[in-house]
Amino acid sequence: MTPRAGTPPVAADRDVAAGAVFAALADPTRRQVVRALADRPTVTASALAGELPMSRQAVAKHLAVLADAGLVAAAREGRETRFRLTPEPLHDAVRWIAGAGARWDDRLARLERELGG
Amino acid sequence: MTPRAGTPPVAADRDVAAGAVFAALADPTRRQVVRALADRPTVTASALAGELPMSRQAVAKHLAVLADAGLVAAAREGRETRFRLTPEPLHDAVRWIAGAGARWDDRLARLERELGG
DNA sequence: GAAAGACGCAACCAAATGGTTGCGCTTCGT
DNA sequence: ACGAAGCGCAACCATTTGGTTGCGTCTTTC
């Protein structure tokens, strides 16, 4: 997947990770997908396309973007691939936000302290 | 600025607010601008353009996007306009993230509890 | 009062983005 | 064995986006 596997994460890494998360969540459809994925444990592209006003391929593209951001993992099962939420990268995003606003907002500063550097 | 001023914020409102924040922070240059703005109290577009490898107008566009997301406020002072960070919308973004990942991640669930619905 | 500094607006351009359709391959059910 | 379900890949299209340049306006300064 992503290069530099196993290498300790430095500031720049977390910025790009957070950036990928922000970019992934910038699209309303993608947020809807994440929301849908927050209810059921897994979902297929076709099932989602049934609920959303767009084609299966469009949904698949969105899921690919989410997967690239590390927010979603795909697992092939027979003839269908089930996607599940993998929310770890969300921490990078929250960290970034807390770090950015810490000097300007008490609550974010507290959040940053709790999350650690 | 944004319509519906004074009306109590509902779920959809916070989603669009969070969406604007995500979109604003999706661009690396914009994150750099926010970072720069996290150090000094205020900054001008020209000053930022001096440090970044791009024109003043490009920086001005980025600042406009950040302002639309409510992350930055502009104040004209004489012949220059100073921009300052207004981090309130960051809370909407954190809230959204916490709400999305709460069922999947204990730390995010705790965060959601602390932030309140 | 005129030059210089900082800004805003508009036009323009290349690349990325969100969507479509069409097609071919694997897998399941009968 | 064969049709249908489900998926992936690729081509294509319109719109958005991140950047540029050029120009006009308003302040400040000399």
Describe the 3D structure.
- The structure is a homodimer of 117-residue chains.
- Chain A has 117 residues and is α+β, with helices and mostly antiparallel strands.
- Chain A has one domain (9-114): Orthogonal Bundle (Arc Repressor Mutant, subunit A).
- The first copy, chain A, has six helices and three strands.
- The first copy, chain A, has helices at residues 11-25, 28-39, 45-51, 56-68, 88-101, 106-115; strands spanning 42-44, 72-77, 80-85.
- Chain A has a three-stranded antiparallel sheet with strand order 1-3-2.
- Chain A binds chain B through residues 15, 18-19, 22-23, 25-26, 28, 31, 34-35, 38, 85, 87-88, 90-91, 93-94, 96-105, 107-108, 111, and chain B through 15, 18-19, 22-23, 25-26, 28, 31, 34-35, 38-39, 85, 87-88, 90-91, 93-94, 96-98, 100-105, 107-108, 111.
- Chain A binds a DNA duplex (30 and 30 nucleotides) through helix 4.
